[in-house]
C-alpha cells in the first residue's frame, strides 16, 4: 500500500499534539494499552501524513499545496520534514509564551510596586492616626 499524502497540515498538527498528550498520559498516569495504541497511531499518522482509515474511506484533508509539498517523498523523508516543522512550531510557540510571560511579569512588578506604595501610605496614615490619639 502506497503511503499517499491524505492528512492535511492542521489535521497533522492535531494528530501529533493529541498523540503526544496521550502517550504522556499513558507513561505517567494510566497504563492502559488502548491509550498507548491510540496515541502511537495518532503520532505515526501525523508524522507520515498518511491515515489508512482515510484511504479506506476515500477521505483526504490535505490541500493541493500540502500534497504538492510531499510529491515524490519517501515516508521517511516525509516524517523527517514533518518532525522539522513540528520543532519549528514548538520553538515559535515557546518564544511567544516566553514573551507573554515576560509581559505578565512586568505587569505584576508594576502592580506590586503600586501595592507597596499604597501599603506604605496606609502605614504612614495609621502611624499618624495613632500619634493623634495619644
From TrEMBL:
Domain of life according to the entry: Bacteria
Keyword match Transmembrane: yes
Regions annotated as coiled coil: 76-129
Residue stretches spanning the membrane: 12-29, 35-57
InterPro entries, alphabetized: YgaP-like_TM
Keywords (A to Z) from UniProt: Coiled coil, Membrane, Transmembrane, Transmembrane helix
Pfam families (UniProt xref): YgaP-like_TM
Domain Inner membrane protein YgaP-like transmembrane: residue ranges: 5-62
Protein name in UniProt: Inner membrane protein YgaP-like transmembrane domain-containing protein
Organism for this UniProt entry: uncultured Thiotrichaceae bacterium
Organismal lineage: Bacteria, Pseudomonadati, Pseudomonadota, Gammaproteobacteria, Thiotrichales
